[in-house]
Amino acid sequence: MPSSGKKKSPEPTVTEQQTHTPNVDAGEIAKFNALAEQWWDPNSQFRPLHDINPLRLNYIDERVSLPSKKVIDIGCGGGLLSEGMARRGAEVTGIDMGEAPLAVARIHAEHAGVAVEYLQIPAEQIAEQRAGQYDVVTCLEMLEHVPDPSSVIRACATLVKPGGQVFFSTINRNPKAFMFAIVGAEYVLRLLPRGTHEYAKLIKPSELAGWARDAGLDVQDTAGMVYNPLTQVYKLNRDVSVNYLMHARKGD
C-alpha cells in the first residue's frame, strides 16, 4: 500500500519566478496528447469525463449562474467543460498545455457553432496578463497532473475578480482512493487508461483547502463525486473520500 503521508508543495525559487519555468509535467501532457482524438467520444477512455460533466456543470451553474459570466477553464483538455459552460451562456476561455487536445477542442467548438477562446498557455503566465478579469475560474481534474498544484491555485486566485468564484476538482489521497480511483478505475473496470493517475500526486481536501486559503480564497463548499459500478452512474454527495469538488470565493 502506498504511503499516505502529507504531501508538501514546493515554494517556487527566485530563479523559477524570474524565468517563468512552466509548471508542467511533460509526461502528463504526452498522455493526453496521445488520447486527444478520443476526447469527444462518450464510449472512449474519456467516458468518465462525459459521465461527470453534467454533474460538474450543474454544480458550478447552481452557484454562479453561468449566463453572461466571464469564465476561464484551467486545464480544459478537449473542451468538454469549456464548451458546456459556453452553451449555458458564459463567455469562456479555455487554456491547456496540450497541443492536440486544444486542436480537438477548437474543431469541435467550430463544428458545433459554440464560441470558446482556446489558448495554449500556462495558468501562471495568463494570470500575469489577465489578473482580476474573470467572474469564475474552473480547474477540474487538472491539479493532480502538475508538479506544483499550489502554484496553479495561486494563479486561479489572481485571475478571478474580487468576490468571484473558483472551482476545483481532484482525487483524494488515501487507501480508499488508491483502490477505487487507480486500482479499480484503471486496472479492474478499465474506465481510464492505466497510468492516468499517480498516487503520490493525489491531493487531500485539507491540502487543497490550505493552498486555497493561502492564495486568498475562502472555501464555501466541498462535495464528493461517487461512482456506482453496478448502475454505472455518478452522483454528488458528501463523501469526499475519493473524487471531490471544491467551491471557493475570493474576498471583496
TrEMBL record:
What's a Gene Ontology MF term here? Answer: 2-polyprenyl-6-hydroxyphenol methylase activity
Task: Name the InterPro entries on file.
Answer: SAM-dependent_MTases_sf, UbiG_MeTrfase
Q: What class of enzyme is it?
A: transferase
The pathway entry for this protein reads as: Cofactor biosynthesis; ubiquinone biosynthesis
Q: Which reaction does it catalyse?
A: a 3-(all-trans-polyprenyl)benzene-1,2-diol + S-adenosyl-L-methionine = a 2-methoxy-6-(all-trans-polyprenyl)phenol + S-adenosyl-L-homocysteine + H(+); a 3-demethylubiquinol + S-adenosyl-L-methionine = a ubiquinol + S-adenosyl-L-homocysteine + H(+)
Q: Where is the composition biased (Polar residues)?
A: 12-22
Q: Which UniProt key words apply to this protein?
A: Methyltransferase, S-adenosyl-L-methionine, Transferase, Ubiquinone, Ubiquinone biosynthesis
Query: What are the binding positions for S-adenosyl-L-methionine in this chain?
Result: R56, G75, D96, L140
The record's family statement is: Belongs to the methyltransferase superfamily. UbiG/COQ3 family.
Function, please?
Answer: O-methyltransferase that catalyzes the 2 O-methylation steps in the ubiquinone biosynthetic pathway.
Q: What is this protein called?
A: Ubiquinone biosynthesis O-methyltransferase
Q: Which organism is it from?
A: Alcanivorax borkumensis (strain ATCC 700651 / DSM 11573 / NCIMB 13689 / SK2)
Q: Which gene encodes it?
A: ubiG
